[in-house]
Amino acid sequence: MRIKFFSGALSLFTGLSLFSLSSLSASAATPASISSPNGNIKLEFKLDNLGAPLYSISYKEKTLVADSKLGLVGSEAEFISGFSIASVDTTSSDTSWTPVWGEYASVRDNHREMAVKLVAPNPERLLTIRFRLFDDGVGFRYELPLQDKVNYLTLMAEKTEFRFCDDHTLFCIPGDYDTDEYLWSETSFSSLPEALASYAGHSEAQRAGGNTIQTPLLLKTKDHVYVNLHEAALVGYPAMLLDTNTARFSLSSHLVPDRLGVAGYLQLPFSTPWRTLIISDDARDILASQLIYNLNEPCAFEDTSWIRPMKFVGVWWEMFVGHKKTWAYSDDYRAKPGITDYDKLTPNGRHPANTANVLKYVDFAADHNIDAVLVEGWNQGWEDWCSFRKNRQFLFDAPYPDFDVDSIQRYANSRGVKIIMHHETAANAADYERQLDRAFAFMNDHGYDAVKTGYVGAIIPRSEHHTSQWMVDHVLYVADQAARHHIMVDSHEAPRPTGLCRTYPNWVAQESARGGEFESMGGNPPSHTCILPFTRLKGGPMDYTPGLFETRLSYYGEGKTEQAGTTIARQLALYLTMPSPLQMACDLPENYLRFPDAFKFIEDVPVDWKDSKYLEAEPARYITVARLDKNSDDWYVGAITDHNARTATIDLSFLPVGVKYEATIYEDAPDADWKENPQAYRIRKVKVNSRTRLRQHLAPGGGCAIRITPISK
Ligand code: NOJ
Ligand code: CA
Predict the structure, then answer these.
(1) Quick one: which ligand is closest to 514's CA?
(2) Which atom of ligand 1 is the closest one to the Cα of 454?
(3) Is there an atom of ligand 1 within 6 Å of 454 CB?
(4) Rounded to two decimals, what is the model's pTM?
């Protein structure tokens, strides 16, 4: 039944009896406020003299976000001003939940909530703004309840402001409707235009223009307060970019539009995603924060036993290094999937997704404790995929003639290895939806339980952007349909994650940032993996593809050779600093066999954790983290630095008192250096306990990885 709260602006408080006892009446003059459970964060809400909603946030008694506007603009109605406060409801909640996988076996959700119900007249409009305050930050969202005068909304803009108070440091990437595969800038409000200009000609995707940047964004104030600004639970709505007013140190929401300029088509009742600010003066808290997951809905599935964290190798890197191998079976770009008789085409002889080669990867995986093998280029349609000459269609149930699905599955089963399916769509997302049922049925029939999806190119045939409402809906639809088939998903070129993997834990990873593959396409400086955990990773795990051992690379398509921004020891550390339930060992088996003692760490390292302790952290500089294996009493430590050498202090006081351990340390050799001597590492064993403090040398661009096992008596 529909409850009618208000009959009009003049009888605002007649609905009060409907609210809980904690409801307060408030007026424009009286701000409503709420604080975090520990009192460090305070949020105040009020209306200005035009009845426009404003909020502000303070941290440890200092203003962090000054009075900032809130509102939504639709073609049918505006929710911007003319409001009165009908009621303010406050509640608090302190619970825990158990993630299917992740950095912690249990996550605490301790928050206070304030729901401000607003009403505006002529025509009557109802809007609730719900704020949640945690010890580690703030989330708020707009809720449009069912109402008489507005049934649906063609949303043109969201008017959320974040008015910061000074010229803070910003760690950001350019606002782009289609991609987030950028290197990060460390800049400030005042230097942002310069920083953004340096990306000119960088991408073929559509940049939002102006001083627009993307979330997750990290800010650092002069008082060393860190703020991660992002969103949670992006469902049925476009992704949010941020327009920057560099003079006012202010950011405002910029929703990704469709080609007609419309941000979203909303049917009431509707709740927007949460706008999130993770806040702390200790950088380690930003990494440890689970705020974005806490603002997502609980797991949507009753049975999650089919979701299994895993490590994988792939018929993949062969296509990147040296540009010698291809996803395509033939070189004839006129070949059409389903029409061309591939048996009559001349194979190009450079197609690694062939049965014999895949079986070699299966053997390698089985021999080295790797759960699965990804195979790219197994299906028809690759001849023309990248040139976009005319045909951008793949078939997802039509293997190339040299890829024998059945015999590969039989052999993989016999060796206890899974094959990971690959669905590159070349951004033909509408066609992918049409094929989806068949594609997933094909996977079920052939024993596949995980798929890597991809959306390279401009979205056809809809001319949508990669992060507009339609694509946000599309990727969630794929994850949801996959769940119905008990399939795990790793999506590439999809909208950056917002914690939805709590609700859909089969959505085990996404790319949605510049991944390790760019070591063969321009390179990733060492600082890159020191900033991603503060930014991109707050929304969910990344399929970064660590494990690069041959770091001198021929560039993809260019024939140049250059040095990746890493040492081997650092690549091992990434398994800890870039946590994901789906971790690739990206390099070629032959490169791993050259360094079998270092590869032992990748064989051993788990991908699911009981507990995590961030020991040291500074954005874009360094990260040291310790994690407890979910299935044993082993701890693992990973430490990385930027291009500067560093001594990490690894305080093992988190170990249980009185227990003796052996630590196997995989470290940069004293003369290691990412550029000059990246493959120089040492492995040594030391006895440690809860009183040990290791001082660990990290080479320029280097790192260290440690396995700590209890010594049985
Ligand atoms: C881009 C993805 O990021 C990469 O991993 C994949 O190999 C190619 N697309 C081809 O699908
Ligand atoms: Ca990509």
Answers:
(1) 2
(2) 11
(3) yes
(4) 0.95
